[in-house]
């Protein structure tokens, strides 16, 4: 659990511009358990991997080169941007140009950067406490399930509710004036 919390924290602070080494605190219990179960230390195990030159275990801190750590995000950022691209091909969302990012992963500068790079013309909105937004709505839904009836807006607003009246094609009884001052 400590390692998961540590990684959760790191994912929120690493940026596409991060350089150097990323320090990840390792639980002493984890180090002891690994040695007990495998018969070798994590430091020795790292030396047997293709990443031996990119990470080092120093006491209870794993130091990982920033590029390797950032590479952990690639599969996920590619997946998210690919999914959004696929969704934007659907006619009902083709004209969407604003993204609202919620959820813990939305707090990661890596996913934010990937979305901004993939959709440079889109307006990106990242809510304060994006990780809590999903939790808060889950609580609302749990307490009052009927409060969230649809994920698609039931109503929208616009600036034009009907075409201008044309007496050559529209019946007079269907005419409605809504502040229109143009020629008819």
UniProtKB/TrEMBL annotation:
Gene3D superfamilies in the cross-refs: 3.30.420.40, Actin, Chain A, domain 4
Coiled coil regions in record: none
Name this polypeptide is given: Heat shock protein 70
Organism whose genome encodes this protein: Potamilus streckersoni
């Amino acid at each position: 659990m400590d390692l998961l919390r540590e990684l959760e924290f790191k994912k929120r602070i690493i940026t596409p511009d991060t350089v150097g080494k990323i320090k990840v605190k390792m639980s002493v219990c984890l180090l002891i358990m690994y040695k007990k179960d495998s018969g070798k230390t994590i430091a020795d195990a790292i030396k047997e991997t293709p990443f031996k030159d990119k990470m080092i275990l120093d006491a209870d801190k794993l130091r990982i080169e920033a590029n390797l750590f950032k590479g952990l995000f690639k599969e996920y950022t590619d997946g998210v941007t690919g999914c959004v691209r696929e969704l934007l091909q659907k006619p009902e969302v083709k004209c969407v140009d604003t993204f609202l990012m919620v959820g813990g992963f939305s707090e990661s500068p890596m996913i934010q950067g990937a979305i901004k790079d993939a959709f440079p013309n889109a307006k990106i909105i990242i809510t304060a406490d994006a990780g809590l937004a999903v939790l808060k709505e889950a609580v609302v839904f749990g307490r009052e399930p009927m409060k969230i009836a649809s994920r698609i807006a039931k109503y929208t607003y616009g600036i034009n509710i009907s075409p201008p009246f044309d007496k050559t094609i529209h019946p007079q009884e269907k005419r409605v004036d809504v502040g229109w001052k143009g020629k008819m």
